[in-house]
Amino acid sequence: MKNILVIVPFPMADDELARRQAQADKVRLGPDITLQFRAVRLGPLNYSSQHDMALADIAILDAGLDAERDGFDAVCIDTMSDSGMAMLRSMLRIPVIAPGRHAMLVAQMLGDRFSILMMWDRWKMLYQKTLAELGMEHKCASMRSIGVTPDNKSLLAGKEEQVFPLLLEAARKCVDDDGAQVLLLGSTTMHEAHGWLSERIDVPVINPGPLTYQMASVALDLDLVHSATTWPAPLVPKVEMIRAIGAAGAAWLENRS
Hints:
There is one protein chain. The protein is an alpha/beta fold and 257 residues long. The chain has 2 domains: 2-98 and 211-256, Rossmann fold; 100-207, Rossmann fold. The protein is built from 9 helices and 8 strands. Strands 2-1-3-4 form a 4-stranded parallel β-sheet, sandwiched between helices. A 4-stranded parallel β-sheet has the order 6-5-7-8, with helices on both faces. The longest helix is centred in the C-terminal third of the chain and has 18 residues, at 239-256. The radius of gyration is 18 Å and the shape is globular. Belongs to the HyuE racemase family. One of its GO terms (molecular function) is amino-acid racemase activity. Pfam families: Asp_Glu_race.
């Protein structure tokens, strides 16, 4: 049996976590693969600035730091920002898969140029960073926002009639006006729109969360892990310090509630 940890990037209650877990229904993994979803202990309210991204890195590093020790065989990070991926790769010798870069790379298997559908413009910085790291700016036909503030806990529940048509309108502009041959959902929080949108647009639509589970499964099947040359281990690991930061942040949030 192979166990994959899925790190959810915001503190949340069990019912909210269940909406994230629903992504697992969209992919068929082998009977020897299990997914365990774990929300972080601390973090920003949303991913809307560089300040938020720094907190996100710390939160996800804290949540996944002990994954290998806890018996997990791989880690998936449930955010298109890829927050914490590089940090966890430097600390773990099990596969760490994040959806942003992997969705873009898989898009290159399916077409030449892709577009990213996003809820609001503040997410654009997330994709620009990953595109620059991969040297793929020229492969991105466009990034189109529907101008709706994302909800990281209730996701799209109750907003389907508002959000789904806006996504379809933006998707058609990406294809017809921008020349996109593949579309990426810009957030795992948008996963509930994937099936509806895919049925109404004539290009592949990548659902980034389920993609990471499949990629982790493939890495385990092929006995592959990220390069320690690219993501070297720290000379002096500060494991206890990271745990202390996580505990302090969780306590601070608890005192505010």
